[in-house]
Structure formats: structure tokens, C-alpha cells
Amino acid sequence: xxxxxxxxxxxxxxxxxxxxxxxxxxxxxxxxxxxxxxxxxxxxxxxxxxxxxxxxxxxxxxxxxxxxxxxxxxxxxxxxxxxxxxxxxxxxxxxxxxxxxxxxxxxxxxxxxxxxxxxxxxxxxxxxxxxxxxxxxxxxxxxxxxxxxxxxxxxxxxxxxxxxxxxxxxxxxxxxxxxxxxxxxxxxxxxxxxxxxxxxxxxxxxxxxxxxxxxxxxxxxxxxxxxxxxxxxxxxxxxxxxxxxxxxxxxxxxxxxxxxxxxxxxxxxxxxxxxxxxxxxxxxxxxxxxxxxxxxxxxxxxxxxxxxxxxxxxxxxxxxxxxxxxxxxxxxxxxxx
Length: 337
Prior knowledge:
Blueprint: H1 3-16, E1 42-48, E2 52-54, E3 60-69, E4 76-81, E5 85-87, E6 92-96, E7 103-112, E8 118-128, E9 134-140, E10 144-146, E11 150-159, E12 165-171, E13 175-179, E14 182-186, E15 193-203, E16 208-218, E17 233-239, H2 252-264, E18 269-276, H3 283-300, E19 308-314, E20 325-331
Parallel strand pairs: 2-8, 10-16, 18-19
Antiparallel strand pairs: 1-3, 3-6, 4-7, 5-6, 7-8, 9-11, 11-14, 12-15, 13-14, 15-16, 17-20, 18-20
């Protein structure tokens, strides 16, 4: 039904029914404006996790855009800036400002949907001059030293702005020698124990830093006692019958022990010392024959003559059995005899 016909019918009805018409009873007709599409609105807001960084710092700044499209369209993102390196793509990126000088820098981000509806936002960040800080650490060249020796302590110190540094040193024992970043603790007279060397460094603005090093002092190790000098020892005694230069059979066991000692200790030597009493016939010759008899036996059993020496002597009038005895003396290596 056309609008004209509808209006005509209503008018006729109104003449026949004179009661007033309510406004609410009129139909609502769509307007031209209401027939337009819902608008597509894109919004954007930028923010930084941290808006400043120290000069030369390797820390990355984190930037983020919060964007929306009223019709839910997908969005693309573009970031630009007047300093630093932008790392990454999308709604979140990172900024490397390590190569920038101190100052204020800006970032601009733009977002857009496929229908070229867009929005943009901007943020600023600052690169700050380095903070003036003083740092100090200590190390000891040898943490344990003997009493009377020096312990060397080395300091490593830095100032954020390159100010000249002054060093101060303290100790709870001993004497400090030297100045600047390296000193030595003189431990002369100190008792055994742990001692602390404390260092302090200051710049001309009053900033300071401390460090400490521990030195353990131990008593000096006494020198080892001198080696015991080698001494000769009697390892066999053979008694001869009066006026005889041959030994009895029971002496053979002693000579065998002498041979065994010479084999086990090839650096040792033997001194054969024979005697004869004044009451015996030609005692000097007899004593010599006794010594030569023992020497001959040892050589025949493989002992080099270079390892043997002989000495003879005369016994006393009251020497008794001792006048007819032969001693085999062991001579250790390096013994002068």
C-alpha cells in the first residue's frame, strides 16, 4: 500500500471517529541518516615500559601500542623514530638506544585497517648521562703468607664520570706499605691468624666505595735439621788363632753377611782392619797377611778392589784376644775415612 493511500484511509477513519489520535500510534518511518552504515573507528594509544635509559646501556626499551577497530578489522602497525634502532614488528617493539647521545627522542606508531582507516600515537624517551658512581673491589696476591713476608693487595676502582680517585688503606694488624691502588701488608712480628686490610676510594665530589681483603698469617716453617753425617759401623769381627793368618770355619758366616751387604748397597765400601799381638811372631807381617786373606776372599767372590781398603795395627801387651782380631768396617757413601 502506498503512503498516499494509507494517509487517505486514515483521514476518512478520523472523520468517522472524531477522537484524537495519539503520536505513539503513528508508524516510525526510517530516515535517510539511519539507513547509512555504522562508522568504522580506529583508536591508538602508545606507551613505554620504561621511558629512559643510561648512556651506553645495552638495556632495550619496550614500546607498545594499544589499538582497536570498532568493526573488529585486522590492523597493521608501522613504527618510526628519530633515534635508536627499532627491533621487531607488530603492536610491541623494542628500541636499542645504546648508540645515542644524551637527549630526548621520539617514537611514532601508526595503525591501519584494510579500508585505510587509521590512527597514530607518539611517545618520548630520554637517554640520560651516566650516573656518577664509584666502585671498588680488592684482591690479595697470596691469601696465606708466612710471618715476616709481605702480602700484596690490589684494588680495582672506577668512577662513572672519570673523576680522579683518592685511595685510603687501613689494617687491624701489621704495617701497610705503599700507596694508590696497590699496597703491601708487612707481617713482621704478627702472630699467626687472620688479618683484614680495608681500602676506601673517594672522588672529588665525595662519592666513595670500600673493599676488604683477608690475609692469613702462618708461622714460618723451621728449616729442616741438617742431615746426619754418615758414620762407619763394625759389621764383622774375626778372631785368628795365635800366629795364624787363616780364619776358623765359624768366621765364614760373618763374611757371607759382608758380601750380602756389599750387594744390597753398591755405594758403600769396606775397610779391613787387622791386628797382631806383640807376643806373636813378626806381628806386623802377620797382621798384614790376615787383612790380605780376608780381602782376597771378598775379591774372589766378586767384590771390586776399589771398594776395599786394608789397615793393620799392633795390639797392646794386655790386649789379649783383641790383639788377634780383624774388624770389617762398613763405610757409607761420601764418608771420608
